[in-house]
Amino acid sequence: MVVCDEWLNSFEAFHNWAMESGYHEKLTIDRIDGDGNYEPSNCRWVTRTVQSVNRTYSNTQTGHRGIRFSNDNPNIFRATIKVRQKSIHLGTFHLLEDAIAARKEAELKYFGI
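Below the sequence we write its predicted structure tokens.
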């Protein structure tokens, strides 16, 4: 993770970007691409809930948050999402891409991202 030179060398530049990009004291800065740098094109202001959903998890079975192999069949993917401490089953899928799409759709529905 690297902070861009513009922000690193000038608080005023960061402050201006923050004010123009929706800063609010109840929001946190979030990288759109978790592997990318802290720079204007890769950052946004989001709630803590949205930021927690945006995390990258490499310790899951598939490398995708909320997607696991089915207990009955390792060739089937099971997608879930947790909302208000309740786990919601989104479906089972033959293709990883379909499970990812279902998870992203649920993130949009429940968290607006």
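The mean pLDDT is 86.
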